[in-house]
Specification:
By secondary structure, this protein is an alpha+beta fold. It has one domain. Helices cover about 35% and strands about 25% of the residues. The protein contains three helices and five strands. Strands 1, 2, 3, 4 and 5 form a five-stranded mixed beta sheet that branches. A hairpin with a 7-residue loop joins strand 3 and strand 4. Helix 2 packs antiparallel against helix 3. The longest helix is centred in the C-terminal third of the chain and has 36 residues. It is elongated and about 80 Å long. It starts with 6 loop residues before the first strand and ends in a 12-residue tail after the last helix.
Length: about 210
Amino acid sequence: MRRPATLAVALLLSACGGSSPPPEAAPAPAPGAAPAVARVSITGREQYYDIDGSSAGALREGINRLGPKDASGTSLDALTVWDLQWTYKPVPGAPGDSSCALSDLKVTLNLSVTLPRWTPPATAPASLRQTWRTYLEHVKTHEAGHRAIAERNAGDLYRALSGLRAPTCAALDALASRTGEDIVADGRARNRAYDVQTKHGQTQGVVLGP
C-alpha cells in the first residue's frame, strides 16, 4: 500500500532596497544554483504590485507603501517565497527482513517572486526611466540569488533522502522527517546569511531614492 509522507515548508526570502547609497563594497556573488537532480520538480512564477510617480522619491514612497510585507509587517521592495515538499513510498524488506527502505522519492519546489512594476508617465524624464531600469535589474539579481538558494536546498534534500533506510517503516518516517527539517533549516540559514552579506541587496545596487 502506498504511504506517501509529505512535508511542506514555506520560506520567505526578501530583498529590501534602501534610499541611501550602497556601501563601497563589491557585489556579493549570488549562490550557485544546485545541479539538476532527477525527481526534483521546480515551478516558478512572478507577480507584481503597481506603483506610480514622476520622481525617484515618489517611486520609493510607493514601494514602501505597497510592497510585500515580511513577518514583522515591514515593507519590502521584492519578495521570494518558496515551498518545498517531498513525497516517498516506504517499502518493507523481504520476508524475514524487518527493515524499511525509501523509494519513489520526489521533491517539489514551488517559487513565487513578487516585484514592483512601474509604467512611466509621459512626463517622466529619461534619467528616471534609466534609474528604474537599473534598479529593477539589481532587484531581480538579488531575488535570483534567493532562487539559487532554494534550488540548492531542493537538490540537497533529494540527495539526503535518496536511499534512506531504517529498521522499521515507522523509524524511516521519523528519520526522513528529521532529515528534511535539518535540510530546510540549512536553507533558512543560507537565506539569512545571503541577506546579511548583501545588506538585503544594497551591495548589489538595490537602491532607489530621491
